[in-house]
Amino acid sequence: MRQAMIGLSFTIAAAAGAFLLATGPRPAPAQDSPQRLGTVHFPTSCNETAQRRFDRGMRYQHSFWYSQSKEIFEDVLKADPKCAIAYWGIGQSLLANPFNPTPPRNLSEGLAALTKAKAIGAGTPRESDLIAALTVYYTDHDKLDQRTRVLAYAKAMEAVAGRHKDDEVQIYYALALDVAASPSDKTYANQLKAAAILEPIFQREPHHPGVAHYLIHTYDYPALAQKGLDAALRYAAIAEAAPHAQHMPSHIFTRVGSWKESALSNAAAARLAKQGKEPDDQLHASDYMVYAYLQLGRDREARALIDEMAGVTGYNAERNTGPFALAASSARYVLERNDWNGASQLPVTASKFAYTESMTRFARALGAARLGRLDAAKSEISRLAELRDALRAARDAYWAEQVDIQHTAASAWLLFAEGKRDGALAMLASAADAEDKTEKATVTPGPLIPARELYGTMLLTSGKAQEALATFKTVLEKEPRRLGAMLGAARAAVAAADAANARRYYEAALAQTETADEERPELSEARAYVAKR
């Protein structure tokens, strides 16, 4: 275990040095765009002016800077009204992040854009195939759920990629594979197939923003995260002007527990997003930053950031990004700090996304249960069941499962509060098993608290110290350097009279929180324990 931790620390230290080097002042490579967004050439049949504009639009598009890319593709049509592939670019921009639900209004606009492209007629078979494939995603959007349409689009792109071997088509096929990947497939078949496509292209096109970006998404899983460090460290430099390019490395930093680098990455992203009047991106980056701050014990900074987020206006309420960030960051703050009273009193903000409300309801349920306020806990758990059932009715299988896991975990703590410890432990273990079989969504750095970490806490509270220690170790294998799991492991080791592990985990927690701006009781306990030995 000690060797594994040393190896991980070495990897993180190396990543930190490389990240700071990558994000420091540097001249842009000569072949990079003046906008510092990377290098992209997407051949089209359009006239010369339209082609230049199209390439510029793609530089924004590959970093998911949709407001800008859509405007540029509209300018392409002004330069060449017969450039049908520009409508494909507009359709891509209207996805508003393919990993998240497309806003309903965008679905209608996207289908209309692609219908215009077909009416004009594509200039080449390649362009025609790309337009037809994206049309598959938008077709029957009022009848088919997004998951069904994503799978159909990925299949269509597989056929397009088989007919056209150029890099841009292959890159979009790899992205489709990532978006269509099943969260329950632990063989990571789609992701590894995408990696096999993207890695050779990255060697040939080291300044391509899309390749670096999509490699990060490809490797954004516990079992694959180490493979994503190279792309994570390079993407921020490739597209240094793009808010999303500054944020995306934190997906990998979060996976390997590199919290300082995650905080730096998202601070840069939020600053650029604010300057560029992109409130959705600002809130998304801020949520990741709050998570990183909490792992470092920088609670006051986390609180100040949450307060700043509350004042952000203009985000798109039809997208899940802003509403989710606002709800999740506030819930994280109280749960990570074991502030059960604060959790029980979190205000509920209306949202069209049931799983956004569930973040607040879950925190309220845990807070009430941990305080022994059984009626309040039952009320919140009942509401979680309603939200889960609404998601099932809407055929949102992924989020229905996530909310069901929250419902099970909260119900377990209610049972525990009622004195039914054996039933509570069995129920919480089932929630942890269910969570281990799925994956987090890209909209979040992780669950508010991993279900298995909650299980470890319940085991420890039940006097099962050895089992609790083993459980916290399991959490840390999946979620490296999670502060709550490290402190939980240390406390379990103390209870199990395992002095070596107690000291090791307490020292690791104290080292991680050396810049903490608030002394949590658990950290005071850690300091006192280490001082005696």
Report on the structure:
Among the domains are: 335-432 and 440-448, no CATH class; 450-533, Tetratricopeptide repeat domain (Serine Threonine Protein Phosphatase 5, Tetratricopeptide repeat). By secondary structure, it is mainly alpha-helical. The chain contains 27 helices and no strands. Helix 9 runs antiparallel to helix 10, helix 14 (259-275) packs antiparallel against helix 15 (279-296) and helix 25 (483-495) packs antiparallel against helix 26.
Main pleated-sheet profile: none
Instruction: List the secondary-structure elements in sequence, H or E.
Output: HHHHHHHHHHHHHHHHHHHHHHHHHHH
Strand elements, count: 0
| Overall morphology | elongated
What gyration radius follows from the Cα positions, in whole Å?
24 Å
Counting helices, strands and paired strands, the structural category is mainly alpha
**Overall residue-averaged pLDDT value:** 93
* Residues in β-strands, percent: under 5%
Comma- or semicolon-separated keywords:
mainly alpha, 27 helices, disordered N terminus, Serine Threonine Protein Phosphatase 5, Tetratricopeptide repeat, 533 residues, 0% strand
Task: Provide a short characterization of the protein structure.
The protein is mainly α and 533 residues long.
